[in-house]
Amino acid sequence: QSALTQPPSASGSPGQSVTISCTVTSSDVSFYNYVSWYQHHPGKAPKLMIYGVSRRPSGVPDRFSGSKSGNTASLTVSGLQAEDEADYYCSSYAGSNNFWVFGGGTKLTVL
Amino acid sequence: EVQLVESGGGLVKPGGSLRLSCASSGFPFSDGWMSWVRQTPGKGLEWLGRIRPGGATEYAAPVKGRFTISREDSYNTLYLQMNSLKTEDTAVYYCTTARGVVAQAASFDIWGQGTMVTVSS
Fold this sequence. Notes:
The complex is a heterodimer of chains A (111) and B (121). Chain A is mainly beta and 111 residues long. Helix content of chain A is 4%, strand content 46%.
């Protein structure tokens, strides 16, 4: 069982917004400010979409935003587009015992 | 172009060994803190371990003692030696690293496309 829990699936129509949650479920893990989100199209390299809870790497559209409240982090995709359909993983650095932990992934479907 | 390219995956029997390689280009490899991450079928991503500049390593509990990460800076190449392989090690294996502020935020912004390892009799 992952230390970070994500819903297995999410969906939305083109143009809509969808939010994917990521909740800490292990007492060994705290988010601090190290939450990241990765987009993964099967067969391709994972792509960093959000780091440091809410920061976007260069080249990532501002339709993607991240936030955190307590033990739950969130990724919001606004103005959904067909190419946003992918698996999304949250991740956090969990210190020198667990290092990096990932959520189980959320399959985002654009209807 | 910044790039990581994994190779060396394949089919191996339980108890067997395999060595993966990750060739880098487009960034100063010798300064990079390099990690291996895998994705098991139907499951999510799992961090396996990392190697610092200079060669110090750290591993996740499930692979500690079985997997060894090394680097050859003169060849800009990262390695993952996997021994005593189990069926549950079947996965796509990625090498990854980070630069600048992304590295400071403990994230990974450079990923390879992965190499598939299948452990089966």
